[in-house]
Design brief:
single chain; alpha+beta; OB fold (Dihydrolipoamide Acetyltransferase, E2P); 2 domains; 5-stranded antiparallel β-sheet; 5 strands
Amino acid sequence: MKNIKTDWDEKSDAQKAVGFLSFCAIILFFVLSCLYHKTRINDIREHGVWTILTVTNKKVSWRGYEVCYYYQYNNKIYKKMTIVGSLDAKYGSRFFVKIALNPDEKPIHLISDAVPDWFTLSPPPEGWKTRPTEKEMRRMMEQDSIRRGLKEEVQRE
């Protein structure tokens, strides 16, 4: 039987080592980036606060939809853009978002589900520690309505 030579057999040991080390470096990069991402997600879940983002623009991109939005936290407005596969978002749509500040004072965030259309209030500047339930949101709307009603009565007098 003849010995069949392949390209692999003809490569030197140094070339094989470089190829193996390159492969290991790529795997290590992906593992570390996954761990970093997981750590960031855990930071948001443990230390984050809830606020509301508002969609300002949505256009079709070759990767899905390019959605531009903003949210306010501690009296500072953050404008961002993200690519999503599909999202029922149009100009003015509002979504709950949980944010946390990393050591560089750059916010990291996770977008959650849509804010009900009937909830028209803005979140407090410092955000909410827990995401408000529908009952809490209705109570906030009711209190705001009462507060505005009192303001209107004072202005009339």
